[in-house]
Each structure stands twice: as C-alpha cells, then as structure tokens.
Amino acid sequence: MATEQSKKTIIAPEYYEVGYHVMPTLSEGDVAAEGLHVRKIVENAGGVVVKEQLPQRMSLAYTIERNRGGAREKFDTSHFGWMFFEGNSSMTENIVAELRSVDTLVRFLVIRTQKEEQATMKPRSVFRRSPHEPEKVPVQETPTAVTPVSTEEIDKEIEKLVSE
Amino acid sequence: MEDYFSQNNIKHIDYKDTDTLRKFLNPHGRLLSRRRTGLSAAHQRDVARAVKRARYMALLPYIVR
Lengths: 164, 65
Fold this sequence. Notes:
The complex is a heterodimer. Chain A is an alpha+beta fold. Chain A has a domain at about 10-115: Ribosomal protein S6/Translation elongation factor EF1B (Alpha-Beta Plaits), CATH 3.30.70.60. In chain A, about 30% of the residues lie in helices and about 35% in strands. Chain A is built from four helices and four strands; from the N terminus they run H-E-H-E-E-H-E-H. In chain A, strands 2-3-1-4 form a four-stranded antiparallel β-sheet. The longest helix of chain A is centred in the first third of the chain and has 17 residues, at about 30-45. Chain B is built from four helices and no strands. The interface between A and B is medium-sized, with 21 and 17 residues.
C-alpha cells in the first residue's frame, strides 16, 4: 500500500539553466557549432532543452583572464548563449564536468531555476509589514438571537403606526 | 506597499536582465541597501543573488572606478 502511494507521488520537474561564453576568436560558423555542442552535452546527460539562445556577440563588463597551456589569455568580448532545460541535480554534475573539458568555452554557469510561468510569489503573510504596525486582532461577532415574528404581529404593528 | 517586482508583476529575477538589475546598483556597481531599493526582503535576496551571478558571467562589473 505504502509503495503504491509512493509510486503515485508525482515528482515535480526541476529546471536548470546553463549560460556560457564562447571564445570571441572563433568564426560565426564555429560559434554556432559550439552552441550545438553544448546542447548535445545537455541532451547526452539526459536533459530536455526547453528554451535556447544561440551564442551572440557581446562586450564583457570586465576583462576575463584565463590560463591556457601556460599562456595567459584575455577576453574583452565573447559570444554569450544560454539554454533552459529540464533535468535533475545528478545530470547537472555530469554537464558541469563535460563543460569544464570544453576548451573553447571561456566561462559558464549552471544554475537551478524555475519556469517563468511556474514562478510564484512566496507566501510572506506570516510576517507583519512593520514591527511598529499594530497587530490586527480579529473581532469576533456575537450572534444575536433572532426571535421569529409572525405576520399577524407585523400587521398589528403596522396598523398601530398608521392609526397614530 | 508593493515593491518594484510586485508592481510590474515580475515573478522571476533573471541574472541576464542587466537593465533591471542596474536599477538596484549605485554608480560604482555596488548593491543598494534595502532601505534605498524599497524591495521586500525576499526580493532583495533574489536581486543580490542575480547580481552576483551576472558579475561572475561578466554581464555586470564587480566595481566601477
């Protein structure tokens, strides 16, 4: 019984995002091929690509330096691309390990995220807005006893009022 | 009182959206305090996380001299 219930529990899909910078020295065709290579890495690890933006040229906010075969390389521009995929944490470990071995990637970042349409505001109602704000005490309404009134009594009352 | 993200119905704070993130940085590229941003505590944390990711990915500078 317990096993049946555990089988029935639906595991919510986890969404991840990989952002990456491709070397600026590559030609346009090579950059596109690099984007496809990253996609292949994600798919080989078992990830399902939901959304993707192929690498586009951009100037970086600061110079990225890295050591490659004893030579120091500096990058002021790059091709930045990203991919949004469905997967799990063990998959991302493999993806990170694979991406580390790709020499043409200057830098990359794999993060857990959520689908935009699934993103919900976190409930924060447990906290008061301000510590100085007085706490609202719920007012309990006491139920008033309603006595049933017959139509004859109402008629009498109306007659009285009319005669006055 | 609603903050910037609640008013604009932004549910997910993306590290790639540098134009939005720049609203919460001072001219030196440092994060503004919550008192200055007027964000809820959760949104302030989300912005801080997104800015740190954007800095790592060289989308935003660590410091502007």
